[in-house]
Design brief:
This protein is α+β, with helices and mostly antiparallel strands. The strands form 2 sheets. The protein has a 5-stranded antiparallel sheet, with helices on one face. The two termini are 27 Å apart.
C-alpha cells in the first residue's frame, strides 16, 4: 500500500512513505501514553517526547508519482499532515533521473529525483525506499521515459 512500484498498461505509479519512521513515532507515542497512564511519568515529562513525535509526524510525507503514456506531464502528489501539493512536470523538460543520497552518500535516506531544465523534483519520500528499491524505481522511470 505505501511503498510500491506499479507498472501497468503504459503507466507507472510509484508510492512512497517512510513507514519505519512513522512506526517508530507510533511506538514512542504508545510507550509515553502507557507510562503516563500508569503514573510513572508526569505530564511535563510526557510533553517532550510527544512534541518530538508531533514534529516528526508533521514532516512525514506520502508521495505518489504518476507517469502515464499519452499524458505529456508527470503528476507528483505530496501529502503531509498539514499540507497537500500537486506538481505537474512536462515530460519534455526532464533531462535525467538520478538518486540523491545527501552529503554522506547513505542510500537509505536518499530519494529518486527528476532533473528538469530548471529544478530537481523528488519522486519518492525521504527514507522511504532502501537502496535496492531506489534502484528499481530509478530503472522503472528510465525505462518509462525511454518508451515515451
Amino acid at each position: 500500500m505505501f511503498n510500491r512500484i506499479e507498472e501497468d498498461n503504459g503507466s507507472l505509479v510509484i508510492r512512497s512513505y517512510p513507514t519505519w519512521i512513522a512506526g517508530f513515532c507510533l511506538v514512542v507515542l504508545i510507550a509515553v501514553i502507557v507510562q503516563w497512564v500508569r503514573g510513572r511519568l508526569a505530564w511535563i515529562d510526557a510533553a517532550i517526547p510527544i512534541f518530538v513525535v508531533c514534529v516528526a509526524a508533521a514532516v512525514l510525507e506520502y508521495k505518489v508519482a504518476i507517469f502515464r503514456s499519452g499524458d505529456p506531464n508527470v503528476l507528483i502528489r505530496s501529502v503531509r499532515l498539514f499540507h497537500r501539493n500537486e506538481t505537474q512536470i512536462p515530460l519534455n523538460q526532464i533531462r535525467s533521473v538520478h538518486r540523491s543520497m545527501g552529503r554522506g552518500g547513505h542510500a537509505h535516506a536518499g530519494v529518486v529525483e527528476l532533473r528538469t531544465n530548471d529544478d530537481e523534483v523528488s519522486v519518492t519520500s525521504v527514507a522511504a525506499f532502501g537502496s535496492g528499491k531506489q534502484v528499481r524505481a530509478l530503472k522503472a522511470i528510465r525505462e518509462f521515459l525511454s518508451l515515451v
